[in-house]
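C-alpha cells as discussed.
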C-alpha cells in the first residue's frame, strides 16, 4: 500500500489538473472530457508491461544523424514492481506535454524513489523531427499564460534544462492498452504495479 504522505505528495505534484485546460486538448473525434477520462485504464488494474526502445539522456548529447541517434537506443521491458511508478504518455508536438516535462524533472529530483517513464508512441516514425526536438529541448523554454490561454516557445541558449528522464519509444498498441486518447496522460502505479489513478491534462498548480 502507498503511504498516505507519499500518495498526497505524488498526487499533488503529478496529478492535480487544471480542468479548464481539458477543453483545449486537441481531439479529432471531438470527445467530451468525460469520454476521454472514462477510456483510461481503470484504478486497481494491473498495469500492462511496456516494451520498446529506451532513450537515456547523456550530458552534451546531440545527434547529427538518424544512425547516431539509433545507436544510443536499447531494448527495454518495464518492471513496475517494488517501486512507485509514474507513466506519462506524451508527444513532441503537444504543447501541454512540453509544459509538463520540466515539472516532471523537478518531481524526480524531489522523489528519488519514484520511477518516471515518458512513453512516446507517436514520434518514432519521423526520426529527423524527433532528433530536432531532442537537440533543441534544453534551450527551449515553453511558456503558458493561463489567464489568456496563450502558449509560446522561446529559444534561449541561457535557458538550460535537459530532458534527463528516460523516454520509451513504444508501439501505438500500448497507448490503446492504457486507454490513452489525449495527451499528456499520467498514470500512477503502486509498488505492486497496479494503477492507483490515471488522469489526462496539464496542471499549473505545482509547488516546488
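Sequence:
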Amino acid at each position: 500500500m502507498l503511504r498516505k504522505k507519499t500518495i498526497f505528495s505524488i498526487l499533488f505534484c503529478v496529478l492535480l489538473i487544471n480542468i479548464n485546460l481539458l477543453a483545449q486538448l486537441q481531439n479529432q473525434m471531438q470527445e467530451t472530457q468525460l469520454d476521454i477520462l472514462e477510456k483510461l485504464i481503470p484504478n486497481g488494474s494491473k498495469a500492462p508491461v511496456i516494451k520498446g526502445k529506451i532513450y537515456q539522456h547523456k550530458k552534451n548529447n546531440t545527434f547529427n544523424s538518424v544512425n547516431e541517434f539509433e545507436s544510443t537506443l536499447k531494448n527495454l521491458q518495464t518492471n513496475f514492481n517494488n517501486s512507485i511508478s509514474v507513466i506519462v504518455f506524451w508527444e513532441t508536438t503537444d504543447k501541454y506535454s512540453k509544459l509538463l516535462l520540466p515539472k516532471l524533472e523537478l518531481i524526480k529530483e524531489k522523489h528519488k524513489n519514484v520511477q518516471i517513464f515518458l512513453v512516446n508512441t507517436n514520434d518514432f516514425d519521423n526520426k529527423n523531427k524527433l532528433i530536432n526536438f531532442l537537440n533543441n529541448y534544453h534551450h527551449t523554454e515553453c511558456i503558458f499564460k493561463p489567464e489568456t490561454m496563450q502558449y509560446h516557445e522561446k529559444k534561449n541558449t541561457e535557458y538550460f534544462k535537459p530532458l534527463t528522464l528516460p523516454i520509451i519509444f513504444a508501439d501505438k498498441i500500448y497507448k490503446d492498452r492504457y486507454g490513452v486518447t489525449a495527451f499528456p496522460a499520467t498514470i500512477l502505479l503502486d509498488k505492486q504495479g497496479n494503477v492507483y489513478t490515471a488522469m489526462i491534462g496539464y496542471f499549473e498548480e505545482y509547488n516546488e
